[in-house]
Each structure stands twice: as C-alpha cells, then as structure tokens.
Structures
1.
Amino acid sequence: MKQPCISQREFAERRERLAARLPVNSMVVVPSATLQHRNSDVESPFRQDSDFYYLSGFDEPDALILISNLISKGKSVLTYTLFCQPRDPQMEVWNGYRAGPEGVLVDYLADRSFSIDEADERLPELLDGIESVYFCMGTHYQTEVRVEHWLKSMRKKRRQGVSVPSRLVELSPVLHEMRLFKSAQEIEVMRASGEISAQGHVRAMQRCRPGLMEYQLEAEIIYHFMQHGCRLPAYSSIVGGGKNACVLHYISNNKVLRDGDLVLIDAGCEVDYYAGDITRTFPVNGRFSEAQRALYELVLKAQSACLAAIKPGIPWEETHDISVSVITEGLVELGILKGNPLELIDCGAYKAFYMHRLGHWLGMDVHDVGDYKIEGEWRSLQPGMVMTVEPGIYIAPDNESVDACWRGIGIRIEDDVLITSQGCEVLTASVPKTVEEIEALMAVARQA
Ligand code: GLY
Ligand code: MN
Ligand code: MN
C-alpha cells in the first residue's frame, strides 16, 4: 500500500539546516538503534532511532551518522558520513539485505561511508580539526564513553599536530527544536497516520460486541493498520473495558468486554515513522447509560473548548488550564466534586479525577521531542507544531466519596492537532466523537 513518505531530498535539507544552526567546525554524532533481544534467539521487530531516521531515512541497525561543517578555503563545507553494516552474504541470508557502505552513497546520499566496524578506528582521524562535538547525552548506551575514547586517542597524537575538539555539546536543543516544527511533507505523512488511525477506531466501534475479549478489539485495530500499510502501531494499544479504563497505561487487554460497560481504546499507527495517537471511549453494547453519557459529554465539552482556543500565540499551559476549568465546573454540576470550582482548582481537587496533562507534542515519537518551556516560561503554540488534545475523567472503582453510579467509569477523548496560521487542523477528525454519532455508527453496524 502506497503511503506518503519523506523524500531523500528532505532528509538532505534537514542535514543542511542542522549544520547551518551550529558553529563552523562542528561535528554532529548520531548513533542508530540496535536490535533488541526479546528472548532466546528472538529479536524484537527493529525500529530505527527517531533522531537517526530524521537525519538519514536509513533504517538499518548498527550505524552511525556524522555531519560536519568544517571550514575549507574560507567556506563551510558540509560532509555527511554514514557508518553502516558491511555487505555480508552469509549474514544477509539470515537477517536480511544490507545497503552496505557502497549502497548508502547512492541510495542515502552519503558523501562518504565506511563499515561500522571501522568507526572507533576512524573517528579520531575524522575529528581532527573539529572544535565542537554535538550528540544527545544520556540516550544511547555508551555514546559518551565512545566519544571520550576517541578524544583520548587523539590527545596522544597532539605532538603530531592533531587538534582535539574542545567542546562536547548537547545536540537535543537544536535538533529537537527542528523536529518540533513539521514540514509540508511531514504534515502529509501525519495526515495519513491520523486518518488510518481514525479508521482503525471506526472499525473497532463497528465490530464491538459484549462478550468479546479486549484483545479481540485490539486485533481489529491492528488489522486495519496493517491492511493500510502500517506494519506496527506507534505504541502498545490500550483497550480497557469498564474499570480498566481507569488504569492510564493499561495494556494487558485480556479481560472480557461486558454489556453495559464503556470501553476506552487508545491506539495509533505509524506512517513512515510518524505516529497517530487517538483515544475514543464508547459503550460496549452501542448505547450510553445516563451516567456514562453525562460524564462523556463533559469530557467532550472540555475537548471542544480546548480545540476552539488553539491557535498561534496561545501559551501551551493555557490549553491545559481550559480543560481543568471545564472539567472541574462540570464535576461540581454533577455532584462529583463539592465546593467552589475556583477553590477546587487551586487546591488540585480535580486531580483525583483528571490526573494527567491535556496533551503532548506528537511526531516521530508519540510523546515527541521539543521543549514545553523556554527560559522558564511556557512556550506559545506556533504554526507547524502538532500536539494531542486528550482530556479525560477517571472515577476509581473504589471511590466511596462519589455516588455508586459513577464508580469505575473512565473516559478519554484524544485527537491529533496541527497548529495552522489561523487556528488548528484536527488530523484525526474522521472518527466519530459525539454520543449521537457513535450510537448511530454502532447501530448501523449491529444491523449489518
Ligand atoms: N498513547 C499515549 C498517550 O496518549 O499519551
Ligand atoms: Mn497522547
Ligand atoms: Mn493516546
């Protein structure tokens, strides 16, 4: 199935933009992911490191990127070096084809390439004359140790004229700020991941019946993702029936879906490394009870108020505060919280029912990179950012302070939102959200 994807031209432009943001005579070092052992002779499916893929589009394990901007004849010259696994007919028979150092020159536009086996030997030579080395610290096993090792071996050659880098600098503020703002190609890819994720949720609503296991609904969603070219979900799907919806990171998905309960599904696919992230909550039997409907409509009211407010210039925190106000006032109206809403907000009483934030940046990582504060202040939303909007209400099954009719109900409604110059675009709009839309969709499916 053909999906939109990021072009090699765009990967090259990203490298150019990154190099242009760094002082001359810098080198960026980004290691790839490695295969993760699952058990015995089994590996987990490989998923490339997001930073590495963002700069290369190369999805093999055990590789290393270098991007340098050395001054030569008065001009800054960008050099893109890729270390990768060497061609090896024996290994390729078992583990799959490799591009090899020759292949990455052509297919991934590397200026020079070497076998990954040569990295530790070549790096001291390639770092000669570099002043600043940029890499993400504390993220990849042993990167710091390897860099230290390269510098140590360079220091031994100072008398031969070798010039050792004098600054080790954290790369993430620069690289992750780039990743926070999505390009036209990224937006196209994210529209696709949003739409495929949305239709996966539609399928789950259509197939839901009392008596199914939670993992059977999960299977419907994964089926849809794979049928539309998405080999893996962006994260472990949450399918929680009844009180399991109150467990925020519930992924066991192994209980029966009961007549009269709601089910909460939080699932999204990945298209060319970009995540969708949707939550819908709906009745297992297709009809909301009175209590379920009252709470659901309150969460939806909070989400709609946030979506209406989202536009360039709004501080990140303000969107969360809107959701807190709507939810707290609504919980007071329903008699679940008692007191003055402003005081209940001040003392954090709402956190017993709404204990997470409104959302997060979304991109190649489901909880994507990018700072939320700049110089101590919440940053404001800007066109090109993508975030989730996902208020929720969760009433613990053993919460004796509320009427029994509310206990064990968990509801979250989550959409993916692109900030545009005028306001926002909901990338996941095609999955029903109002009580009427959901009940109508499920009623038609039951008759079919
Ligand atoms: N699916 C993870 C989240 O919504 O944050
Ligand atoms: Mn989310
Ligand atoms: Mn989610």
Note: The two ends are 28 Å apart (CA to CA).
2.
Amino acid sequence: MNDDALVIAIDGPSSSGKSSVAKGVARSLGLQYLDTGALYRAMTWLVLRAGLEIADEVEIGKLARNSKIAISTNPDQTWISADGIDITNTIRSAEVTDAVSQVSAVPLVREILVELQRKYAKLATEQVGGIVVEGRDIATVVLPKADIKVFLTASPVARATRRGLELDVDIAEVSKALEQRDLLDSTRAISPLRQDPDSTLIDTTNLDLRQSVDAVLSLLDELTVDIQADADIDSEWGDFLDIPVDLVSKPVVAILGRPNVGKSTLVNRILGHRSAVVEDQPGVTRDRVSYQAEWNGLDFTILDTGGWEQDAKGMYQQVAQQAEIAIKEADLGVLVVDSTIGATEDDQRIVQMLRAAKVPILLVANKVDTQVFESDAASLWSLGAGEPHLVSALHGRGAGDLLDVIVKSIPKELRTKPGLLGTRAVALLGRPNVGKSSLLNRLVGSNRAVVNEKAGTTVDPIDESVELDGSSWLFIDTAGIRKKFRQDSGHEYYAILRTKSAIERSEVVVVLIDVTEPLSDQDRRVINLAEETGRALILCFNKWDILDEDRRFDLEREIDKDLQQQRWIPRLNISATTGRGVEKIPSSLRKVLANWDRRIATSELNRFITDFVQANPHPLRGGRQAKILFATQVSSQPPTFALFVSRVLDEAYLRFLERRLRETFEFEGTPIRFRQKIKKRESTLK
Ligand code: DC
C-alpha cells in the first residue's frame, strides 16, 4: 500500500456532474478514475444482449457471475469492455439507460460489481497515487473509509439541461427520464442512493466545471500526507517518476492477413468464443475492431484489421492500409497466411512494411489441418518473418500454443505510437455545411492519395492519407465529412459519438468555424472535447473573405471574449472557396504538433518554477501557504507536468502558472496538464 495514496468517493444522482468533476479531480491530482455507473451499464448491456427478462434475477445473477467486465481507470482515456468486446459507446444508448436502474437493483449484480470496484480501488492505491470513484453508493457502501467523501447535487432543471445539451434532445423528456431513474435508484431495497453522513454536500447548480472541481480540491486542504523526514529528494522523485501514467495500458496485437485466411476464426479462437464481428455502433469505424483478451495473466488488446474487399484493384491499397494500422497502433503484428496457398506478394509487402517500421512480426500458417500441409507451411520461412507457427483455427489446433507464443513475443517495452511512418493524424471537425469538404478538397487538391472505390460495400473509406507540403498526413474519418453522415436519421447522438471517436483517433484537431454565424455551442463543445482529450488544436475561421473590415474587427473581439480561456489556440482566417489562407494550415499543423510533443528539461523547468514562485507567491489560505516545491514534465502529447506542492494549489493560480509557462516556453496550440502531488513537511523538501 502506498501511504500517500488518496481515495476520493463521489456520489450523487444522475447528471449532477459526477463524472466530469471526478475526472477533473483525478486529472488535477494525477489519480485514476472509476466510473461505477459504467459497470452497471455494462452489466445491463450483457443482460440485453443475452435477451434475459429484466425481472429474471436468477438468470441475471448467473450471467453476472460468468461475465468478464474490464474498465480503464485512466481519466484521459476511458473505455469499458464486456467479454472482450469494447462497449464504451454502446452503454450510453437509450436502451441501456432505460434498463440500468432495474438491473443494478439485483443483489447479486451489486455484490459482484462492488467487489470489482474495490479491486480497482485497491490496485490504484497500491500502484499509483490513488483513485477517484464516482457512483451512487461509493461513500456509503463500496469505500466507506475513503479519505474524502463528496455528495454532488444540482437542481433538477440544471441536471436535465446539462444532460439535454450533451445529447441534444428535448429537455422536458430528459427531465422526466431523470426523475424516474432517481426514484428507482433512491428507493431500491439494496444500497439506495443517499448521502453518507460524513460526505460534504456540494451543490453544482451555479458552478461551472472548474469551480466544482475546485470545491472538491479545497477539501484536500486539511488532508496532506507525511513523508519520511530523512528521505532524500532523488529517491522521492524516483518513486514518483516510475508511476505508470496509465495503469491499464495494454499491449496491442494486430491480426493481419489477406481475406479468407481465417483471421476472424483465429480471433474467435483466441477469445474463446464464437461471436464474430460485434462492434454494433452505427457510424463508428469499421476498418478495425478491437477486443480485450487475456492469456496467462497478461491482458492485451487484439486489433482485427478487417475491412478487406474482394476487389483486386483496391487490394494493394488495402494491404498498405492494414499495415499502416498495425504500424501506427500495434506492439506486435500477427500475420496470418493460408498454408494451403502459401506466401503471396501481399504477405510479402506487409512483412516489408512492418519490418521497415520495426514492428515485430509473428507469422502464423493457418489451415494446417493435416500433417501433409506442414511441409507446405515450411516454405513460409521464405517470407523472412521468422518461424511460421502452424495452427488450424477451425479445429483449434495449436491455438493455445499460439497464444503462448503471442504473449512471449509481445515486447516488454511497449512502443510509443507517434503516428504512422512520420504521418500525423488530423481530425477536421465543424458543424454541417461549414465547408469541411471544400476545405479538404482545397487542401488535398489533386494529391489525394488513398481513395478506395467501394464496390458493393456499405462501408466508406474513413481515413485518407494525403500529402501536404511534402509530408504525409492522415485525415481521420473523412467519410463523415464527405457525406452528411447519417445525420438524416435524426441521431445527433451518433454524430457526437462519431466526433468523439475522430478526436480520440487524432493527434491534432482542426475546428472549422463559420464566421458568418456566431460561435455555436456545438463548436465550443468540440473545442472543449479536443482540449479535454488532450489533443493539439487549431481553429480555422472560414468564409473570412465575405466580411468587411469593420465586421472583421468586431468579430476578432467577440471571439477573444468567447474563447478567453483558450487563447492558446491559434486562429487562422481562411476561405475554403477562394483558397485564401489555406496554405498556412500545413505549417500551422506542424507547429502545434511540435509544441504538443515538446519536453522541457527538469533543470530548466525548475529554474522557471523557482522564479515564478518567488515572484508570485500563492495567496494565503487560513494563514497557511501553498507552495510548489519541485516540478517535472512526466509526459508529452500533451505536455503534462507533475507539481510537488505543500498544499493543493488554487485553480486560478494554476491557470496563472499555465499562462506564464506558455509565455516562457513554446506551447501554442497544445493543452497543458498539471498533476499535483501533495507533500506535508515543506522543510524536508526545501
Ligand atoms: O452514472 P450512470 O448514469 O452511468 O449510472 C447508471 C445507473 O447505474 C444508475 O441509474 C444507477 C446505477 N448505479 C448504481 O446503482 N450504483 C452505482 N455506484 C453507480 C450506478
């Protein structure tokens, strides 16, 4: 157990702001984050998938016992899977939301999930600084000994409005649904929602997110932690620097190969069940499907790089695309070859591309259904990808051995995945009709590289690699740009999911804004989401050519005001139709990405901090002073700084520090993160 570890329990009704506040607190303090509602939603998803009656508690209990749910506790990268299937987005559907209160009232479900929650909390306190857990019964039942207990509330109207904005639906309807859920959650027989007597009540009705986070952080004031009097700074820091940034960061194994070599059967063998392609969210990428797998105690992610078509013309590009996905995301590429056919040119190309990018390869000869083929398989040595491992996916032959080999072949040090062969990933976002596809065409001109002609499929090419200014870029989810993707079905919800997924897959986000209209809530939401997700950002103001001088001047001022907290985002004034200013985009992208990648040496950083603290002491609180003792950059993309402090710093002070940091070092266009680490006895670290 790490003595410094901190456990924070946050309870409250739906839409009281629990998850944003809990995430914000976790980020500020460098802690893990657990959304327990997501676990109940996952269980509900399993129940619905199995087609069980909601009232059938016995069967539901059985299902709960036999299912495997895994959740990320990294506040910057949340996902959840059930039985190996990524259901991060699916659990937010109306179907799950409608059934979750009933499923979460089943005693056995609660018993199992509470145990799981305690396990995650324990892991976080042992391995990192601690955890923020949010739900309905965290302070009362799950973690009654939490260091800090908070009960968040907000007026029903505020809650319904927040939820409504998130989903863009009718507020009155949302309000009714919320009431219904609150009623069920607070009247159920087993651990109903109620405020723990030791909890601090925080009403967020009139607070914005920063203020709510601050309110929780202020509770830490009286709760600082001891350090050994004689600890020398180096070993203190050594410990801290070793903290894994992501507790659940898992190796990624990409399964590659031509069509019909048995990739999916193999994936199913590995996962130990037969469900085929399971990602069932409309509008979400289909060029890869990921599954969570486990073998011999090692958790890893399997990436099935599907998306092949039988069209011979497009094959070449598809090989390249598959290899690119693997190069960008995988720690190990498993190349599946049909041993009855032998190695083909396509296989050869995949091997070459992966080797050039130094991604380790494991060669698998599938369909080795009889001894006879074993000799054929031997010819696969010629691929130059090492020993062919013989399996028959169909009969399960060799699957266990193969898993042993896969697990052994995963490199100990996982790669950082900067983007494929120097290519950087860009998400181009903005409201419908703002001119995204004109801009894309203008940018790409005749240089469009990979555009698959899709014959007879319903799937669009979602990413496009293009050359701009002599370097290559991957534009994410261009299908969503070229077609007004499924907006017609009235499901704004899926548009949001799609935007989220594009941001998550990108390194830099370009938000295109129409200057002939005021900055919309949706624009702001995309900007905030990109910032929260920690991506580099550029704003392009389109249709600039239509404005006259006066209006331009006024508009600049309006935007300044609107984006006060986000002055660090560069703004380009462009016209996608005339091409004005568009040429500045590539160099701007390069600049913000360089800043996003930037690392500041610890010595240089601490010179800056010492000067800063001297010139700007933290305001006194209760006669005591918070102070930054030492700082170090723990990661880049985005730049993240750990601050060792005597007491928790105010949000305002942090923002001021951020501004100075930006003035001193070059950080235009990148979010900056701070993680505070509290140390009690200042004197020992001084
Ligand atoms: O926070 P949320 O809306 O994702 O939670 C979904 C449901 O899960 C909620 O209606 C009640 C249930 N839940 C629970 O019973 N206990 C928790 N600790 C968290 C959620």
Note: The radius of gyration is 26 Å.
